[in-house]
């Protein structure tokens, strides 16, 4: 079970699971901790996993004022310090990978290693056009289901649409007791759209693995490759046949890959 934790600047909803080396999971746009369920279930016998709702997602309230990547990275840092975690393997997905980049730059001592899934250093013109569409789509779609059906076209593989996974995820999202408001979605989206670490990534010192889905429309592999090439000694890998959220679609593949990376980092400590 999760709990609300006061980090000194903001209260965050947090779920912790397992025992072993510490892992911090940082969610993307609109995702609550439940998005990481395959990792919370699949890795908890070997790692102590911490996942949390970002500002304006799930049970964490949306504060006054603009959302920014540095502020959200500071939230993650404050959470680690509040939980007395000296350093963690940090895994960030999509917008959460933007937060993870800032965390590694602003609080390097807290980051034992870095996994960036579906990432970019700076939104390109396609990304900006896509997010402008999402911004008005969340208000003007004829229903929440219709909005999710459209939104998930960018997120999941054609396979997931064909085999019923997307329908199941939509049903779960609609049944979730803490839905994200349109305002919170738009304000998170605006923060992620302003992300830019393109001239600072060479300052990341943590061992880094960058993962991209071959079929990812939102953050295609060329953007992930640019991130990996900018971070000293970073590893880069494309997951064949996968899209934006392989940690949900093929959790066994994702979990095995990140665990292999963490074990290599620990062996080198």
Short description:
This protein is an alpha/beta fold.
What are the SSEs and their pairings?
Layout (H helix, E strand, L loop, with lengths): L2 E4 L4 E8 L3 E5 L10 H6 L5 E5 L16 H14 L5 E6 L1 H12 L4 E7 L7 H16 L3 H8 L6 H5 L2 H11 L6 H12 L14 E6 L7 H10 L4 E5 L6 H4 L1 H18 L1
Parallel strand pairs: 3-4, 3-5, 5-6, 6-7, 7-8
Antiparallel strand pairs: 1-2, 2-4
Helix pairs in contact: 2-3, 4-8, 5-7
GO molecular function: triacylglycerol lipase activity
InterPro entries: AB_hydrolase (IPR050471), AB_hydrolase_1 (IPR000073), AB_hydrolase_fold (IPR029058)
Protein name: Pimeloyl-ACP methyl ester carboxylesterase
How would you characterize this protein structure?
This protein is an alpha/beta fold and 269 residues long. It has one domain: Alpha/Beta hydrolase fold, catalytic domain (Rossmann fold, 3-Layer(aba) Sandwich), CATH 3.40.50. Helix content is 43%, strand content 17%. Strands 1-2-4-3-5-6-7-8 form an eight-stranded mixed sheet, sandwiched between helices. A hairpin with a 4-residue loop joins strand 1 and strand 2. Helix 2 crosses helix 3, helix 4 packs antiparallel against helix 8 and helix 5 crosses helix 7. The longest helix has 18 residues. It starts with a strand and ends with a helix. It holds the Pfam family Abhydrolase_1.
